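Table S2 (continued). Query chain:
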Amino acid sequence: MACLHPHAYANMLGNTAIWGHVVKALILTAYNTFEYGDMPMPEIGDGDVLVKIESASICGSDVHGMDGSSGRRNPPIVMGHEASGVIESVGKDVAEWK
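Corresponding output:
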């Protein structure tokens, strides 16, 4: 599975998607309410990098975002910004990443 940085999905319903390809995500749909499931894989733009996520986690700021106490996580949003992976593909204007 490949996905962009989790925060790229903040407005997930408005994204253009590659038909038929999906990624897994833990989505904060409302404060203290999560859904784990499939999301369409977004198309990358000319300056974007698509990363195949090998591992993802949450941290303390996600915990506080879950209940709304931080004011920085506004549902719907994909949780887990601690990620590592390998570059799957790059946009045509990306020169420094392969």
